[in-house]
Structures are given as C-alpha cells and as structure tokens.
Amino acid sequence: MSGAARAIGLLLGAAADVVVGDPRRGHPVAAFGTVAAGLEKLLYRDHRAPGVAHVLVLTGGAVLLGVAAEKLGRRSPVTQAATTAVATWAVLGGCSLANEGTLMGRALDGGHLAEARERLPNLCGRDPEALDALGLARATVESVAENTSDAQVAPLFWGAVAGVPGLLAYRAVNTLDAMVGHRSPRYRNFGWAAARLDDVVNLVPSRLAAMLTAAGAPVVGGSAKHAWRTWRLDASAHPSPNAGQVEAAFAGALEIRLGGRTVYRHGAEERPVLGDGRNPDAGHVTRAVELSRVVGGLSAVASAAAAVAIGGLRRGRRRRG
To answer: What span, in angstroms and rounded, lies between the C-alpha atoms of 90 and 252?
Structure first.
C-alpha cells in the first residue's frame, strides 16, 4: 500500500469518526466482542495458557482479515485509501468518548449525581456508588485521558505503521484487555496475556499521546509547561506503564490533581497522585473533553505524516534492493 493512500485513508477515517460517529447498531467492535465472549466460554480455565490461546486466535484473526482487505485493493490507490478509511472509522472511538465525557460534565455541572453515576460505567469500570461529585469528576478526567490514547492515538499510530492489519489488530488487543485484562479473580490468570499484550502495543502510543497533550494544552487554555513537567516527574509512579503517561500529562495540562484511592467493583487500589493542582470538577471534565478532541486531531495529522514517511522509506529500500 502506498504511503499517500494510507495517509489519506487515515485522515478520512478520523474525519468520519468526528462527523458520523459510531453506528447505533451493528458496530464492528461490538460484533468482535460478541465473538470474543463466545470463544471465552469455550476456552475459559483459570490458567494463563487458555488466555494466551484466546488472544492469539482473536488477534490473529483480526490481522488476517486486515491482510486480506489490503490485498484486495493493492492495485488501486483509491481502493486502498477507502479500505483504510473504513477500518480507521471502525476502530476509532474519539467521538463516543467525547460525547460520554460531555454528558458526564453536564450531569456534574447540574448536580445530577444519580445521572452521573449511571453514566460512569460507559467510561470506566469503577464503582460509581462509592464516588461523590469530586470522585466522579476525577474518574471521568482520568478515563478521558487514558482513552484519548487508547481510542484515538494508538489506533492511528498502528494504522500509520502497519495499515489495516495494524488498525484491526490494535483494536482487537485493546478490546480483549477491556474484556478480560483486569485484575478480578476470574481474569487474573486467563486475562494475563491480553493485559500484557495491551501494555506492549501501547508503550509508544501512550508516550506519543502525552507529548501531543502537552503540545495541544494551550489550545484549551492549559499549560504545556506543566504538562511536560508532570509527565516527566509523575508518570512512572503509576502502576500501569501506559495509563500514567497520558493521565499525568492531562493533570499537568489542566493544572489539576489526579490519582489517589480508586475503587473498582473487584476491589480498591491506592494510586499515586499525579500533579499538584486542585481536585478536578465539572469544568475540568469539559476541558478534558476539549483537550481530547485536540489531541485526536493532532494525532490524525501526525499519523498521516508518518504514513507518508514510512511509505517513502519502503520505496527507497525496494529501489536499492
């Protein structure tokens, strides 16, 4: 696939996510989740080996589907761009993320805590009943930050590097991590492979997301300086090798404090504090959503530029060969 066709497809797919958003029914990621849940029923054992098989079958299938899609359009740049655009639109989740974040911000701003608690599971797996207004705001900002990387920057990164197979494989890995990769008693062993693979594929994108957060901070009235500083000083203290990168950058950009005691349905975790500002409120939720949109736009442009550059390098190697 040519670099230019890939770049155009990535930009068109990102634009479609902003303009069209996700379909209300029949979303490809939801269909993948249904298949994954069915395979889990067949393979589940409280051991790592079945979990490894679960991940390999589903992620391998996504790669093969992507390879087949690219082969079908290899002779036509227009088809290549269109295929990449459809795949990009299917795997991105920036629009849904922004919509959920916006609704949470409105509910919190209006003091509608019951509505906010009802909506929180759409963003993360925390126990909403254990959270007050400040806790709900913090959970939302942290989820918006982490998912800015997972739902926008990372898939675009892998799309630039590996085209349609990269797009589909990344979304498969990230979806499996969300389904079975958490530390509940059921998935501590079976979900080990999904969680570790998700860590690996997000190592570079999460750091890119942090850099783009710092670059985009001034657009929403935030501080690029504080974003860089908090990212550099606090990110490594987070138990996740990736989530802490972009959460720290968001904390610094918005000049707030994230982290602390985090309650999930399967138990509580004591997270390190990221940043040294005030606790987030409804206004910070709204600004986090705005920052997420900015980072998504920057990542689309960066991924397109990377796709062109990678395509040029590959052409150069073929000529020398």
So the answer is: 31
Nearest alpha-carbon partner for 178 in 48, 38, 55, 42: 55
On the question of pLDDT at 43 being above 70, the answer is: yes
Question: pLDDT tens digits for 89-120?
Answer: 999 999 999 999 999 999 999 999 999 999 99
- Residue 259 and residue 274 in contact, taking contact as beta carbons nearer than 8 Å: yes
Is 157's pLDDT higher than 90? yes
- The span from the CA of 91 to the CA of 96, in Å, is 11
Phi-psi category of 23—alpha, beta or left, where left has phi over 0 and alpha has psi -120 to 50? beta
Whole-model pTM: value is 0.93
